Amino acid sequence: MYFIRMASFDIGSWFLLLVIFIGFSAAEVVELTDGTFEHQTQASTGSTTGSWLILFHLPDCKSCDKLKPILDELGNDEELYENGIVLGSVDCSKNLHVCRRFSTTKLPVLMYLHKKRLYRYPLKREHNEFDNLMVLPDMKKLKSFAIKDYSRLSGGDGEIIPDPLSDMDVMIRQIMEVFEGSQKFAVFGMAGIMMLTILMLFVTLVRGNSTKTKTAKSKKKVK
């Protein structure tokens, strides 16, 4: 009888430990990549994977490094977990498709994905004669943004979540980034994109005509 009680206690203890372990695992900041972002977040479809608070960052960014421990600390917050909010991060030095998809050219960027809308946390800079410092939120402010203040702080109903980019979209955005800030180069960049588009249309038309010709010839042979 004593053995049965001990065995029951041990099973119950292991089950409790398993629940606690799963809870802590769910609180971790998820590393998102070009290959996993859409599958894990379901950003475009709005499926039931929860809402996501995501940090877009770079390895050599000081402000990004200061935000990472705040996000880690927020991962242990029970209220955030109960509201179905998942924390994620994207390294923009390795995942160009995702970062260009969300137009995150000036990093860090804090973004909240909720019910097929995205809300950007308004990170601001303080200028003085010695430095140009970014004002970063503490854990309390970031938590409040994710739970209730996302609409107010981002200035309205948020933005439509953009669809995943194709390789051509990424290439065009790379060209635009190179020529951004210079009107002269921007004109050449736009001309280059137009020429590339015309060339692709021409190739498509030639291939289409070639296919039609082959089809016509094959029909004549059959007759």
Word description of this protein:
The protein has helices at residues 2-26, 37-41, 62-74, 78-82, 96-101, 139-154, 167-179, 183-222, and strands spanning 30-32, 51-57, 85-91, 109-114, 117-120, 124-127, 132-135, 159-160. The termini are far apart. Helix 7 runs antiparallel to helix 8. The relative contact order is 0.10. It is elongated. Mean pLDDT is 77; it is low at 1-9 and 13-26. The chain has 8 helices and 8 strands; from the N terminus they run H-E-H-E-H-H-E-H-E-E-E-E-H-E-H-H. It has a 6-stranded mixed β-sheet with strand order 1-3-2-4-5-8. By secondary structure, the protein is of the alpha/beta class. It has 2 domains: 2-162, Glutaredoxin; 174-222. A hairpin with a 4-residue loop joins strand 6 and strand 7.
Task: Give a summary of the structure in a few sentences.
The protein has 223 residues and is an alpha/beta fold.
Please tag this protein with its features:
Glutaredoxin, two-stranded antiparallel ribbon, 223 residues, six-stranded mixed sheet, alpha/beta, 8 helices, single chain, 2 domains
CATH topology of the largest domain: Glutaredoxin
Structurally, the number of domains stands at: 2
Strand order of the largest sheet: 1-3-2-4-5-8
CATH architecture of the largest domain: 3-Layer(aba) Sandwich
CATH homologous superfamily caption of the largest domain: Glutaredoxin
Helix proportion range: 55-70%
Topology:
Layout: H1 2-26, E1 30-32, H2 37-41, E2 51-57, H3 62-74, H4 78-82, E3 85-91, H5 96-101, E4 109-114, E5 117-120, E6 124-127, E7 132-135, H6 139-154, E8 159-160, H7 167-179, H8 183-222
Parallel strand pairs: 1-3, 2-3
Antiparallel strand pairs: 2-4, 4-5, 5-8, 6-7
